[in-house]
Amino acid sequence: MINYSCINQLRTLRDIIRYTTTIFNKSGIFFGHGSDNAYDEAIYLILHSLSLPVDNLDIFLDSNITKNEIRKILYLINKRIRLRIPASYLTKESLLQGYKFYINNNVIIPRSPISELIQNCLYPWVKDSESITSILDLCTGSGCLAILAAFAFQQSMLTATDISVDALRIAEKNIKHYNLQDRIKTINSDLFDKIPSYQYDIVICNPPYVNTLSLNNLPEEYLHEPIIALDGGDDGMHLIKRILKKVKSFLKSDGILVLEIGNEYNNFMKHFQNINPTWVTTSNTENNIMLLNKAQIP
């Protein structure tokens, strides 16, 4: 809990950042939904509360903060600590690859490392980004990967699907924000069930893949995310099996599947010994994302 009697001792932005970083470090909260340390999370929440840009911190560090501003910051910090609500749910926004997305707890917080591959236009597996004309984003959630793909592959039309109507409302809000309504259409569908028959250049999917044991041991912050977007069944492979069973008919002859499986590499290898994907390394992950071309899918 926050001690509000400290208000009279906190005068500048530098003071409140130092104070918040200290109490975050002492609180035992989990970092991993946008920032990975107390200092960065403190800065993010404080600057958001003050409506200040994150890229000009230095010029404001010694600025005085009013008592009302301090109370507003401490209220936000208190909710973060006491309720273990991830910062992005408190601010209703999340940054991914420099793009801002509106979110609430109907969608998981955008953090997929697939975004890093999209920013690089899936090179070297896609040689010419302008040759890509059709992309399917399964389990779109907030729509973040579909939106990033639309910017990376300028000639493409995209379909973004999700089983959750509430999630699709968030995706549509983000699609409208980036004025991509003419290029990204949304479909409420349980994986491929309601998607019209069509063959895509690229299928992207960040499905629920957390196995039951891991799900039951996640930090408290994850309990604020929709369970349907995390739960991959006993071994994390429930949705993966369904995807690999049907995705082939939705790919062009030279199409590729980009599929995230998180930390379920061992379970994947146990179930799919006949599949030899390309495992893609990103700046923070290894053996979390696979690429498969159509010929590699049984």
TrEMBL record:
Coiled coil: none annotated. CDD domains: AdoMet_MTases. It comes from the Bacteria. It is an enzyme of class 2 (transferase). Its EC number is 2.1.1.72. Residues 133-214 form the Methyltransferase small domain. Keywords: Methyltransferase, S-adenosyl-L-methionine, Transferase. The keyword Kinase does not apply. GO terms for molecular function: nucleic acid binding; protein-glutamine N-methyltransferase activity; site-specific DNA-methyltransferase (adenine-specific) activity. One of its GO terms (cellular component) is cytosol. GO terms for biological process: methylation. This is Adenine-specific DNA-methyltransferase. It comes from Candidatus Kinetoplastidibacterium blastocrithidiae TCC012E.
